[in-house]
Amino acid sequence: MSNVTRRLVVAGLPLIAVAAPGLAHAKPAPAFTAVDIDGKTRSLAEFRGKTVVLEWVNEGCPYVKKHYSGNMQGLQAAATADGVVWLTIASSAPGKQGHFPDGAAARSWMTARGARPAALLLDPAGTVATTYKAKTTPHMFVIDKAGAVVYEGAIDDIPSNKVEDLPRAKNLVAAALADMKAGRPVKVAYVQPYGCAVKYKDA
Predict the structure, then answer these.
(1) How many domains does the chain have?
(2) Considering the entire predicted model, what is its pTM?
(3) Does a structural domain hold residue 76?
(4) Model confidence over 50-86: pLDDT tens digits?
(5) Is residue 202 part of a domain?
(6) Does residue 203 fall inside a structural domain?
(7) What is the domain-level CATH number for residue 113?
(8) SS3 annotation, the chain
């Protein structure tokens, strides 16, 4: 077990999605389509040849609120400046925490937070989340230009909902993107995600 993984496990098991590595190193990343906040159908295929980040979000989750105190927006802006396509995905089902009833509500939240994704995708049926086996908000995926998932899991290595922990945390998504930019293999390909459980519809 790596030091990073050990820290996540010890820090608070109930807050972490306990699962074996999922899609990391999958080739290719699973295809999907989803409607964005403007009502346009978007697909992973339209970004072929580009680095893509997928971020699962639930605006009511305290872990999401922590990262949207400025950390997530800064990461989005830096990634976008490097030509990365950032897709934020809201998969909360109707009646569940974090559900956006329509694109206007999602846009209002995005504007209020100063979020900077290339698109915010609405996935209330949980179709995309199920395809990617998304477990938490946030749950992060980095897909390289060849279409492979090269990083999956936590956004950083301190599984808390406390803003004060951000300065001392190692951002694992930023590290993966830095490795890719430098032409290196991604050193850490999977770290157990933490946060609120994705609010799938009831079975």
Answers:
(1) 1
(2) 0.89
(3) yes
(4) 999 999 999 999 999 999 999 999 999 999 999 999 9
(5) no
(6) no
(7) 3.40.30.10
(8) CCHHHHHHHHHCHHHECCCCCCCCCCCCCCCCEEEECCCCEEEHHHHCCCCEEEEEECCCCHHHHHHCCCHHHHHHHHHHHCCCEEEEEECCCCCCCCCCCCHHHHHHHHHHHCCCCCEEEECCCCHHHHHHCCCEECCEEEECCCCCEEEEECCECCCCCCHHHHHHCCEHHHHHHHHHHCCCCCCCCEECCECEECCCCCC
